[in-house]
Amino acid sequence: MANWIAVTVTIWPGQVLDTKLPVLILASFLIGSIPTWIALRATRWTLNRRLDNSERQLADLRALANRPVDPAPPPAPASVPSPAAPAPVNDIPPAPTDLFRTDKP
């Protein structure tokens, strides 16, 4: 085969490695793919943590939504206002036109 030629690679001064070209290309590819693989694993780990947290929150919310409801207390009997009770205060504010009268006497 034509690609199986010997290649001399200088690792450090004084250290030389003789290898075949396809082995050198494969080793370069594998070494170059390590940072991408690490980034992929870190991203998957982060997303799995976020998904687990969301699933835990969803389970808590479902548990709150499915809890039994306490019955409402019976209504108190209607009380008849006594004649000595003070008149209720009018909490309705005046109309804006009543605040500033334009007609002067």
Q: Fraction of residues in helices?
A: 40-55%
Query: How would you spell out the order of helices and strands?
Result: EEHH
The number of helical elements comes to: 2
Rg (C-alpha, Å):
41 Å
Shape assignment: elongated
Mean pLDDT: 85
- The low-pLDDT segments are none
Strand order of the largest sheet: 1-2
What does this 3D model show about the protein?
The chain contains two helices and two strands, in the order ββαα. A two-stranded antiparallel ribbon has the order 1-2. It is an alpha+beta fold. β1 (6-12) and β2 (15-20) form a beta hairpin. The radius of gyration is 41 Å and the shape is elongated.
Could you list some keywords that capture this structure?
single chain, 105 residues, alpha+beta, 2 helices, elongated, cell membrane, DUF1049 domain-containing protein, transmembrane, LapA_dom, membrane
Outline:
The chain is elongated, with a radius of gyration of 41 Å. With 105 residues, the protein is an alpha+beta fold. It has 2 helices and 2 strands.
Give the SSE layout.
Blueprint lengths: L5 E7 L2 E6 H45 L30 H4 L6
GO cellular component, one term: plasma membrane
Protein name: DUF1049 domain-containing protein
Keywords: Cell membrane, Membrane, Transmembrane, Transmembrane helix
